[in-house]
Each structure stands twice: as C-alpha cells, then as structure tokens.
Amino acid sequence: MARLGEIVDSVTSKNAGPFWITIDIRCGDPERFAAIRQALTTEHAAACCGVPPAELKRFEIAPLSVIKFSLRRTSVQGAPTDRDMHGAQHANLFRELEIPGHEGPAP
Amino acid sequence: MPTRVLIPSGVLGLGFDTDALARGINGKPDIICIDGGSTDSGPHSLGTGTSKYARGVCKAEWRALMRARAEAGVPLVIGSAGTCGTDATVDWMFDITREVAHELGQSVRVARLYSSQPPDRIAAAHSAGRLIAIDPAPEIDAEGIASMSNIVALAGAEQIQAALATGADIVIAGRTTDTALIAALPLQNGEAAGPAWHAAKIAECGAFCTTRPKSGVVMVEIDDSGFTVEPMDPTAACTPETVFAHMLYENADPFRLAEPGGHLDVTDARYDALGDRRVRAEGAQWVPRPYTVKLEGARRVGFQTMMLAILREKRYVRNARLWAERLREMLLPRIEAQLGCPPDTFGMETRLIGIDAALGALEQRVADPLEVGVLMIITAETQALAEDIARLANPFLLHCPLTDDEPMPTFAFPLSPAHSNRGAVFEFALNHELALDDPMEAFRLEVTEVGHGQAG
User: Fold this and answer.
1) DSSP assignment of B63-82
2) Which of A106, B82, B403, B410 has its CA 20 to 30 A from that of B24?
C-alpha cells in the first residue's frame, strides 16, 4: 500500500491562529483528487490526529484539487504542553497515512 | 476610480525585493500597507510586549519603506507593530520611525493607533456580557482577566480609517487584523466591500499568493466589482490557482473570514487569468454583523529552566522511554523531600528527541535512532525554584542507570552549565470578541509631527 505523501503533490499543516491547526493536501490533478477523496475517509484522518471524527472539519476544493482538514489544537499554541509551535508536524502524520487501493513505489 | 494598494511583504522584518518595491512605486499606489506582526511564533511576544524581529532589521526595512513613501507621496501604514501590537511595541516602532525621519531629513505626520486593553475594561465588559466566546475559548473569570500580562484588541478598517483621517503620512497601528490595513482605504473610497476584503486576504502575506513568495511585493487594485492582483517582481506570476490557494493559508475555513463588523464569504468567488501574470477576482461577498473586535491575551504560567542530555549507548537508546520513566520516579520523591515541592506544584517533562519529541502520543513511526536527545523542561512558580529543581535533577540526568545492578552510566551534556533559565513563559488565554457601540471606543489615536530639526 502506498502512503499519502507518495501519491499527492504536497501535504502541509500550519496553525490557523493559536487555537486551530489546518492541514492542506494538494492532490495535484483531478484524477488523484477524485481517488484520494474516496480513499481518505474523515474517520481515517481523525484517527491519525487522535480526535473523534466529529472534531475534524473537512473541505473538498475541487478547482484546486485540494482536500483540507481543520481541527482544534489539543494543546493551545505555545502552552507548556505544546510540542510544535507552528503546527507543521501534523503534515507528517498525513504523509505517512497508508492509502488503500494504491500501490507503493517498487521496493 | 479604483484604489491601488501596494504590499511590500507579508511582514516587516522578513525582507522584500527592492527592485520590486521600486516597480511598485512606479505603479502609483494610493497607499502602502505592511503587516508588522502575528501570533505565529507563540505567546511570548504578547506576554512580554516585545518584538520577535531584530530592531536593526526592522529599521533597515522601514527606512526603505519611508523613502518609498516620500517618493510616492502617499500614506504608509504598518499594522500589528512589533509583532504583538501592544502599546509598548507601537512606541518601539515610533522610536524607529523618529530615528529614520531624522536620518533621512524627512518631516512627517505620524499617527499612532493604540490597541492595548486595560484589564479592568475587559473585566467590566465580561460582567456586562459584552465578551463573546469564539470556538474554542479558554475559560475566563474576573481574576483570570486581571492576571493577564497584556490584552490587545484587533482593530478593523474603521480604526485605520480614523488614523488616516488625521492626515497622517505614516500610521503605526497596534494589533490589527492582517486584512484591515489593506481594506481600509478602498472601503473609504467606496469600492465594493466583498472585493476589498477579499483582495486584503489574498495580499496580506505579500507575494505568498504568487509563484515566487520570497519576492515580497504585490499590488492589488480594487474597484466596484472586483480586484486585480499583480506581483511587482517581473519573474513572479499570479495564477488563478496561486491566488485561490492563498485562501487556504493559516485559515481553518477557506471560504469564510471573520472581521470586525462582518465576515468575508468567498464561496462564489471566481478567479480569472489576465494575461500570464495578473489575476482578476470577482464575486466575494461581505456579510455585515454587529460590531465586535477580537481580543488576544497572554498570561504568565510560570518560569522555565531547561536541560539537554544525549543518550548514545545502544541499550539506553533502545530503552529510552523506560529510562525516562525511571528517571522521573527517582526525581519526584527527592524534589518533594528536599525542596518541599509535591509533584502537582511544578511541571517536569522529558521529551525524547529521536523518539517522539515533536508529536508525542500521536507519533506512529518507530525507528532505531543512533542517539536520543533528552530535553528536560521544568516549569515552576518562580525562576529560582525552576532552577533549583534543575540543579537537583542534574546528576540524575547525567548518571541515571536503567537498573539498580549495573555500573553508573554517564551521558553527554553538551553545555556548561547544563541548565538554562528561560525566564517567564506565557499562554494565550483569550479567544473572545468584544462588542463595541463605536469602533473607536476601545482604541486611541495620538498624532505627532516628527522630523528634521524638530523636537519630535
């Protein structure tokens, strides 16, 4: 099985103010967008963020072939428990998600 | 008549292409607007009322902008001055402005817009039901509000317009929404509200909406039906995709943006290429609502001391988690017995760099690192106590064995002293809006003639 980061053009994440993190998945073209929007369920994405699916806002932006998720930060940005001031590491969790129905690169 | 706004960069201190700035001035802007701040680096700037960027860097860039302003003969506006936009950082930016004016021999009228909020005003608004929680809002009460180090309100277009109405050549604004500075003049000139706010959101990070983000400078031209955006670096281009994509950036909802007095809705916006480098956007809506301004507040949560050790021996690297738990079990009773601090009166974390330091419990990958960095972070009520806990922990962090029956190990301490005091640490403690009857009621303006040969 391939990982999301191997299939799409880019995955980034960033704070959206001190209380939210937003994750942008740029699929690259309409074909990959159509495939990823089917394969990447909100449940799947929520599990990788450690929150219930209802905590995730999902946006599908067809003109840009982008799937976007936003969630409340579990540690407010910069609080003593926060490990990642800019929220940029969530992108790694998504890059490494296994996407069913896609072959990984040849070993 | 369309209104042209020149945006030299996403933030003062980040740099811009000076040739592109010159090209922007040739394009005859009606105003030059630059943001000076953000919450993106964390609560320390607001907690302390200090700038994140170096003074010398801000001064050098501000000098270039003050020169450009004099050449263009139009107002220059900076919002969220000094990162956090407190009264102290507005005055910091004013000092820089005064120095540059003297050095360049310029005489300028400077309006300062102050955004800091006295805690008693916010406490009174809280008890009067004039604070509106934004999701997710921290719990607040009168005591919590009183204990905040700094509170600022984010000014909107109305307050920037009031500052421009003083006839100011330069406006130094405290905390402002990133978009309000750009939207203020077009709105005042009667351009369409939806496109004015939409253009402001697209251009707020300078050239981030182009193919070459580092070039900095963009021009937006707003009229009564839409706006056009163009990068001032001839090798950069705006495409419908780069422009639309900027709606996603640092934005939890890419179609809706809350502002003082309303929200921007871009659900029906259309983006069309004008040639190879410019984009025309139309269709954004402005949806008015009762007037509120967003608040930001920072509260001190303690003082920190940190230490760094490195595990290199294979068995310790492989068992780093177990080792860290054992270290904690050894330390907690000693800290209580010798320093009189029960475990619930301070914080002590050991983050394992190489294992899961960035993501904690969310980390999915397991690897076999060569070495593991042990970042120990101690948070206590006073700096002296945090430092004492670190001093007590020092020999254990250096020598803690995995089991009782083995020779005492020694790990790598890269620094002497092994601990560093980090000073006060803060947290963002407000995510609320303040309802206002008059946009200026929570802001104040001061106008000063500054310049060569004057006391200023």
Assistant:
1) HHHHHHHHHHTS-EEEEEEE
2) B82
Over the stretch B350-378, which tens digit does the pLDDT of each residue have?
A: 999 999 999 999 999 999 999 999 999 99
State which residue of chain A sits closest to B269, comparing Cα positions.
A63
- Please write the tens of the pLDDT for every residue from B282-297: 999 999 999 999 999 9
Distance between CA B142 and CA B131 in Å, rounded?
A: 12
Tokens linked to A107: 């070993």
ipTM score here? 0.94
**Average pLDDT rounded to a whole number, residues B31-43:** 94
Specify the CATH architecture of the domain B300-427.
2-Layer Sandwich (3.30)
Contacts of A31 (CB under 8 A, 6+ apart): none
Give the nearest partner residue to A64 out of B40, B245, B250, using CB atoms.
B245
Dihedral pair phi/psi, residue B335, rounded to 5°: -65, -40
- Please, what are the domains in chain A? 2-99 (3.30.70)
Domains of chain B, by residue range, sit at: 3-115+154-291+436-451, 300-427
Among A residues 32-61, those touching chain B with beta carbons less than 8 Å apart: 48-50, 57, 59, 61
